[in-house]
């Protein structure tokens, strides 16, 4: 049956940019969502109609985001009532479609579902583009009361608000995943650079070590002193590379840990053994005191020893010559391992900064990377523990690692 | 009789350092540049221990190790990885592919021989 020209909904002048706006909502052909279904049901109930739709007018079709009382999920754009409502500043109300030139030969009017009454609140994007409508439909001619018209307007704005929320949420998710990607690339870069640094460092450090240990190749004390400086600094470079790599792993959430049920005392001894040389160089006294009994802990041995060594190295570094560094362990429900020095202490205003990356108490020093404490903190926290610090200026500092006790052996 | 150690390492400088460190530690050392050359050399003379770099051209460390372990005539030669690839190494296929152990670069040149003997047990 030929259609009268006025029955075809007119295309807005800036249809291309209207479609662009519509697409930016990524709503077409998405699954039904309760919030849109509920608004459509509410509209049908409050306006007392058997049918209600949330429609979006696409290039050649109108698609229903919500549908009360109709079988279809979409229709031809040319058959759409709502396409006529696009760009309308307010409600479009058709009291009797059979009497309206635009709709009298519409297939939805002349055949099932035999629509006679239409009222639609246009959905208008913030940029002014019409996207579709929230509409109610009936099979008998009728009108809207003033209250019903207001209700439809308000609900239409709620649909638009939901669409807007939808779009913003999607943007936020995209931003977050983009941020994750940037972080991943950064960590990958750091890992690659660290690896590339290790290769030249291996031959550099190895050559110097071999040279220094060969009295024939290096006959003078001056020569040995100079190579000694070079060895010490290449070792320092290796520590920096290792620390940076650890931080990259921590930030990527990829610090691998192999948890084993272990007694505390041997962990303390292992850490002490590592730093004995350092302490001797400064003529410090190292004292270790472990309560007995102590509960076992569930830890990655290397990482926990690394953490205690970090604290001990710091204590030694900041101790005056001849001072005392103690490592104690106590506990029952949990295990507290404390490292104390008699150093110059940390001012109160700096205490909370000590775990920050690259922060160095009292400004940069030549020995550290400023990463040790933040690595230690991350390791301890990954074990479900925590690290605390107390300090008295000119008296000393105590760092305490608290770890949960291992659960009791289930095969006991 | 000193033990014959065969090493695959694509960095010539590391070859020099490791060879010198291990010679001092009492090994007879030979170095080749990649896994392919190592497999050829192993067929000519059976080493007592193999030291493998992880990333190498031609044939990398893990694939070389798999080839050695897949051949009954070489499967029982102990393989040790020596690698700068420390990240996530523990979960890698290094040990799973039948290696005896691994040494992270940079290694300590003065104790490298001891480390290897320790791993060999």
Characteristics of this structure?
heterodimer, A: 412 residues, 6-stranded antiparallel β-sheet, B: 121 residues, alpha/beta, 5 helices
Strand order of the largest sheet of chain A: 3-2-1-6-5-4
Strand content of chain A: 15-25%
The sequence of SSEs of chain A as H and E is HHEEEHEHEEHHEHEEHEEHHEE
- Termini separation of chain A comes to 87 Å
Strand tally of chain B = 5
Overall average residue pLDDT of chain B: 88
Word description of this protein:
The complex is a heterodimer of chains A (412) and B (121). In chain A, 43% of the residues lie in helices and 20% in strands. With 412 residues, chain A is α+β, with helices and mostly antiparallel strands. The model of chain A has no long low-confidence stretch (mean pLDDT 89). Chain B is of the alpha/beta class. In chain B, strands 2-1-3-4-5 form a five-stranded parallel sheet, with helices on both faces. The longest helix of chain B has 13 residues. At the A-B interface, α5 and α6 of A face α1 of B.
Summarize the structure.
The complex is a heterodimer of chains A (412) and B (121). Chain A has 412 residues and is α+β, with helices and mostly antiparallel strands.
Explain the layout of strands and helices.
The complex is a heterodimer of chains A (412) and B (121).
Chain A: H1 15-23, H2 34-46, E1 51-57, E2 61-68, E3 74-76, H3 82-85, E4 92-94, H4 107-110, E5 117-124, E6 130-138, H5 146-212, H6 221-251, E7 260-262, H7 264-281, E8 285-290, E9 297-299, H8 301-317, E10 324-331, E11 334-340, H9 348-351, H10 372-382, E12 386-392, E13 396-404
Parallel strand pairs in A: 8-10
Antiparallel strand pairs in A: 1-2, 1-6, 2-3, 4-5, 5-6, 7-9, 10-11, 11-13, 12-13
Helix pairs in contact in A: 2-5, 5-6, 6-10, 7-8, 8-10
Chain B: E1 4-8, H1 12-24, E2 28-32, H2 35-44, E3 49-52, H3 61-70, E4 79-83, H4 93-96, E5 101-104, H5 112-120
Parallel strand pairs in B: 1-2, 1-3, 3-4, 4-5
């Amino acid at each position: 049956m030929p259609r009268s020209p006025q029955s075809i909904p007119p295309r807005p002048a800036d249809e291309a940019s209207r479609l662009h706006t519509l697409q930016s909502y990524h709503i077409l052909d998405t699954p039904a969502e309760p919030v849109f279904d509920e608004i459509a049901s509410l509209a049908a109930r409050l306006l007392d109609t058997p049918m209600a739709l949330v429609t979006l007018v696409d290039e050649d079709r109108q698609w229903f985001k919500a549908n009360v009382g109709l079988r279809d999920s979409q229709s031809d754009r040319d058959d759409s009532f709502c396409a006529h409502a696009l760009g309308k500043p307010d409600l479009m109300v058709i009291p009797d479609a059979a009497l309206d030139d635009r709709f009298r030969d519409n297939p939805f009017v002349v055949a099932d579902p035999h629509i006679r009454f239409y009222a639609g609140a246009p959905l208008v994007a913030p940029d002014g583009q019409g996207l579709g409508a929230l509409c109610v439909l009936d099979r008998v001619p009728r009108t809207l009361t003033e209250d019903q018209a207001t209700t439809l307007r308000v609900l239409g704005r709620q649909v638009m608000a939901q669409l807007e929320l939808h779009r913003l949420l999607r943007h936020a998710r995209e931003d977050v995943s983009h941020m994750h990607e940037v972080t991943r690339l950064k960590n990958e870069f750091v890992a690659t650079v660290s690896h590339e640094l290790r290769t030249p460092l291996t031959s550099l450090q190895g050559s110097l070590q071999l040279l220094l240990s060969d009295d024939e190749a290096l006959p003078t004390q001056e020569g040995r002193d100079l190579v000694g400086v070079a060895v010490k600094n290449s070792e320092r470079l290796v520590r920096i590379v290792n620390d940076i790599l650890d931080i990259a792993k921590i930030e990527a959430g990829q610090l691998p840990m192999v948890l084993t049920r272990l007694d505390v005392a041997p962990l303390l001894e292992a850490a002490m053994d590592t730093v004995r040389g350092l302490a001797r160089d400064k003529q410090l006294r190292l004292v270790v005191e472990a309560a007995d009994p102590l509960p076992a802990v569930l830890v990655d041995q290397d990482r926990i020893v690394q953490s205690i060594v970090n604290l001990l190295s710091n204590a030694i570094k900041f101790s005056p010559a001849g001072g005392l560094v103690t490592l104690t362990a106590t506990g029952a429900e949990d295990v507290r391992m404390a490292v104390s020095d008699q150093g110059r202490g940390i001012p109160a205003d700096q205490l909370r900064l000590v775990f920050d990356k690259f922060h160095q108490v009292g400004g940069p020093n030549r020995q550290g990377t400023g990463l040790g404490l933040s690595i230690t903190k991350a390791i301890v926290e990954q074990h479900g523990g925590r690290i605390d610090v107390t300090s008295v200026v000119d008296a000393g500092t105590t760092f305490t690692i608290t770890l949960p006790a291992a659960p009791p052996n289930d095969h006991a | 009789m000193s033990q014959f150690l065969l090493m695959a390492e694509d960095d010539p400088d590391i070859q020099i350092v490791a060879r010198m460190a291990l010679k001092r530690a009492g090994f007879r050392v030979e170095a080749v540049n990649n896994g392919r050359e190592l497999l050829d050399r192993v067929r000519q003379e059976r080493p007592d221990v193999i030291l493998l770099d992880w990333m190498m051209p031609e044939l990398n460390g893990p694939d070389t190790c798999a080839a050695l372990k897949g051949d009954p005539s070489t499967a029982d030669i102990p393989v040790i990885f020596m690698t700068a690839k420390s990240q996530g190494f523990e979960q890698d296929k290094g040990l799973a592919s039948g290696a005896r152990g691994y040494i992270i670069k940079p290694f300590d040149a003065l104790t490298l021989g001891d480390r290897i003997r320790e791993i060999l047990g």
